[in-house]
Task: structure prediction
Amino acid sequence: MNYKELADMIFPDAKEISYYEEKYPVRNLPEGAIVSRFAPSPTGFVHIGGLYQALVAREVTKKTGGVFFLRVEDTDQKREVENGVTDIVNSLKDFDMAPDEGMISDTEEIGNYGPYKQSLRKDIYQSFAKYLLEQGKAYPCFCTTEELDETRKKQEAAKVRTGYYGVWAKCRNFNVEEAAEKIKNGEKYVIRFKSPGREDRKIKHHDVIKGNVEFPENDQDIIIIKSDGLPTYHFAHAVDDHLMRTTHVIRSDEWLSSVPLHLQLFQELGFRAPKYAHISPIMKNDNGNKRKLSKRKDQEAAVSYYKEEGIPANAVKEYLLNIANSTFENWRRANPDKDMDEFDFQLNKMSVSGALFDMVKLLDIGKTVISKMTAEEVYENALKWAEEYDKELAEMLQNKEYSLNVFGIERGNKKPRKDISKWADVKNSIIYMYDDKFLNRDISYDYGKISDKEEINKLLKSYIETFDIDDDKDTWFNKIKDVAEQHGYAREVKEFKANPDAFPGHVGDVSTVIRVALTGRQNTPDMYEIMRVLGRDSVIARLEKAVKA
Result:
């Protein structure tokens, strides 16, 4: 018996690899077009680092007229979680990053290079494993778990590298007939790659992000087909990235050490290797020490967190672009109104060290993103979020016409309001605008500089007498000045500053008293616009409530 006969025995139904080469031809794309992918495992929630990788892959493919696809690497089915694929698909949709090809639901896909679920590609992997067996580049391994544990203990005692390699690879120099007999007898086995590498030799490799790197050659005889017939990640990714015609593999730098093995697999399979770009992880400052964002420790590690908090998808994407390319911030400053897709994203401008996650910066971007929305857009987004996460807010927003007026305050100005960074902020930012939430609750009024209740009531009563909802803005403010002057306050702030001892305060202090009586807050958007939205009856009711308090 020879290698080919053994391969036929192990994989009797496997097609010739030429079949798959014809089925998945080289893509007809413009010169320089990049084909890349997001290839997560459905083993838990989607990490923000995964979304980061997907964004980077999508950006570089989009800029070159290439293809961004979603492949689900589900060969480790023992670790797969319920709805894991659905969560991945929905996470991309939520952030407007749906793939050009690949999985679009748990069971549906688009594109001509699928299946895009590795568990459905078993026949393909077996064909290429058979090819390696025929070439003498792979072999069946019958070692039990106990035997492998014993080998590891011997290696540790001898203080040598652990693993399945060289003299420690018990089944490496197998006898074909003996292997065939074991298989006939029903002994369990896996298929291992027969590495041609030597650890004392080095390989040099150029990573698109990391630059030139050097590693020892791989000499490990890794498992490529498990006993259940499914491939390991290492083997599956090589076959898939070749057949899906991937040009650039963009992934976390935890895989950087696997480059020697992966390049070796491509070489022995006769494939042209893609370019690798290894992204540094997103870090967090923890009491002065940097560490990776942790699934276990950090709520912001989960992509679902951003949806639950209502941080706009565009804000998250802008922030990730910000940490991906240091030039993005300057570009945005120079182009405040341009779509982020117009930014010339470059892989080679990514940092070789991990960027620090900054929630303050993200929320600041969120404020800017929301400030540029129309009242209609704010309303629709806030309502959509509230219907899922805040029923009270959803009820408040049922009166669409009124709510649009509320959201329209200071919107569309040269310097629009920036008091909302995420949809979870909305209720607190607008709740005082709803009479049933404001007039029917106890309010703790803090009027700032003016604290004497008798004085406050005098000012409010004077203003009530002069208030007219139909006043234009200049008339409205002049009336506040009149009230201030009537009670001895400086009509102008500059007048007060020139002679502070002559006045108990200035018109700004009086305005604050009115604002607090009206809203319960010292800081709000434009008070004139607030009054116009509230209407005369509500304004008077609120001022009178404050007098009685």
Summary: The radius of gyration is 33 Å.
